[in-house]
């Protein structure tokens, strides 16, 4: 959704760092092998697609052989589970991780990978106890407030509860995820969905608005806003949400119509000016975009989304002017 590293890649990197820190040499070598497979995949696919196996497939074969050679090595099996997960082989990832858990029920990496794999397969009843157990093992550690693996577990635990139709149970883990990573737009969105399910529209709107400040192109969050504003009978805010939804879906003409109407009727609503500036930018009217974004900055001087958009548009205008000056 966001133009950031995927949550799965972040998880893999964190697992890798932990193993290296603990100086598990054999596992570090295996992880280096799988990292090489991930990093080299594009190069292989573009230039060396003649062989029968991709680097990721070869890495899986190497890890599978390592597990067969030493079936009692839990770290090698967990490394294989993580590689399966990275390649979207969630059933294999869950199976490999749960094999470790039969012998080592407190193996943190196995708990996390199995829990995430079960979420990806919609096997939520199986995911929840594993993620909850992982949280219980990690939440009181000295580094809990900066633990991104713990944040990931909290997020997926909250998401699982939302999908299970238990929004009241989802709120605590999602809020815990946000205490570790306040800029997690996905967690903010899921928290908004949980509040919305509990008919706490004001709280839901606060979460949705925070999410889109971090990730402006977030159609699901605008849909949630629209539903809340409809419940609250707030037609002007509803039109704003509908305009931003149109913008996030690439429907710029209806977005402009809706957001122009909102700014005309409520000229002090900064988010509408931001949305209008983003819409003008997409329509190629950089001058109008700069004016709208300057208005948004006046109303919300500390809004980073506004600052970034205005800086980008101003840079584009300067480049455009320089090109015109250089033209014969």
Report on the structure:
The chain has 328 residues and is mainly α. Among the domains are: 8-38 and 65-138, Tetratricopeptide repeat domain (Serine Threonine Protein Phosphatase 5, Tetratricopeptide repeat), CATH 1.25.40; 255-321, Serine Threonine Protein Phosphatase 5, Tetratricopeptide repeat (Alpha Horseshoe). The protein is 78% helix and 0% strand. It has 17 helices and no strands. It has helices spanning 7-21, 25-47, 55-69, 74-86, 90-103, 108-120, 124-138, 148-163, 167-180, 185-197, 201-214, 219-231, 235-248, 252-265, 270-283, 286-299, 304-326. Helix 6 packs antiparallel against helix 7. The longest helix is centred in the N-terminal third of the chain and has 23 residues, at 25-47. It starts with 6 loop residues before the first helix and ends with a helix. 43% of the residues are buried.
Low-pLDDT parts are 1-50
Rg, nearest Å: 24 Å
The CATH architecture of the domain at 8-38 and 65-138 can be given as: Alpha Horseshoe
Helix count from the secondary structure assignment: 17
| Termini separation | 43 Å
The fourth-level CATH homologous superfamily of the domain at 8-38 and 65-138 is Tetratricopeptide repeat domain
Task: Name the structural class.
Answer: mainly alpha
- Note the main sheet: none
Oligomer: single chain
CATH level-3 fold name of the domain at 8-38 and 65-138:
Serine Threonine Protein Phosphatase 5, Tetratricopeptide repeat
* SSE topology string: HHHHHHHHHHHHHHHHH
- Give the strand tally: 0
CATH class of the domain at 8-38 and 65-138: Mainly Alpha
Helix content: over 70%
% residues in beta strands:
under 5%
